[in-house]
Design goal:
7-stranded mixed β-sheet; 284 residues; Rossmann fold; 11 strands
Length: 284
């Protein structure tokens, strides 16, 4: 068996105590990370970087849009259906800042699977990549979704690069099927509207639901597991303690090929590595 010297850095007995109430909510955890690591690059995607401070600013803009323009209230459910892009953490933490419950949705779902999850979760809003919007068009009237925000792959790559990426994806690669959802709002327009609006910080507690995380549906229909803010914080802190002997704050880089709509990558790659101030490459 190959030698694994890094294992020698672990104490023989790893039994750290964690305090699941160290953070009152995922939002309080996020604020602590921004305070500690705001100057660091937190995410890199397609060569474009985003610092923790920029993530804080963008997510606040998106939260303000959700509160003031989408008219969503604390506890409402919002579906997120996209691969790993810079937009993903912006939308996730924007939703948390608005006090919403996040419904992570596999981008490869069929119309039938989408309809089941959206109806079952009671989602009132969705952020979806344009590449999958044609499926949403088919089933949206059978759901409670009233607010549709559509993003494109290049939306956070900068004005020039983003325009080129979106043009190539849509017209050269022909990866965006035709769809017609006139009431939809473009993601970048939502950020602009939110930037001109005020954000109201929600009063979140550990027992509030943060995610409706759906199962794979291999033995029946997919079921939504209710994960509270305290659930997420506890799991993140447990993983953080486990990695402590081998990882250092402000120094790590993590590749994220696993999709953030899966609970493993969401917890380990996004949240745990945020506590370390790690640079994340959300490759997809």
């Amino acid at each position: 068996m190959a030698s694994k010297p890094w294992l020698n850095q672990y104490p023989k007995e790893v039994n750290p105590e964690i305090n699941p109430d160290e953070y009152a909510s995922v939002l309080h955890f996020f604020e602590d990370c921004i305070k500690k690591y705001g100057d660091l690059i937190g995410f890199v995607n397609m060569g474009k970087t985003m610092t923790f401070k920029q993530l804080d600013e963008y997510s606040t803009q998106f939260a303000a849009y959700l509160q003031n323009h989408a008219k969503l209230k604390q506890g409402d459910r919002i579906a997120i259906q996209m691969p790993n892009l810079l937009q993903n953490p912006v939308v996730i933490f924007g939703a948390v800042k608005a006090g919403l419950i996040i419904v992570n949705t596999n981008p490869l779902y069929t119309e039938r699977e989408m309809e089941h999850q959206f109806k079952d979760s009671g989602a009132k809003a969705i952020v979806i990549l344009a590449n999958f919007a044609d499926k949403l068009e088919v089933i949206r009237k059978n759901t409670d979704i009233k607010n549709i925000i559509i993003t494109e792959i290049g939306d956070m790559q900068g004005a020039l690069k983003g325009a080129i990426v979106n043009f190539v994806v849509k017209y050269v690669k022909k990866m965006v099927p035709t769809y017609n959802i006139p009431e939809a709002v473009k993601f970048n327009d939502a950020l602009k509207l939110g930037k001109a609006s005020s954000w109201t910080k929600p009063e979140l507690k550990g027992s509030d639901v943060c995610f409706l995380q759906y199962t794979g549906g291999t033995t029946g229909v997919s079921k939504g597991a209710m994960l509270t803010h305290r659930n997420i914080v506890a799991n993140m802190l447990q993983s953080y303690e486990w990695f402590k002997p081998v990882l250092k704050e402000r120094e790590e880089i993590v590749i994220t090929p696993l999709p953030l709509y899966h609970i493993f990558a969401l917890t380990a790659n996004l949240l745990v590595m945020m506590k370390y101030g790690a640079k994340k490459y959300p490759d997809h």
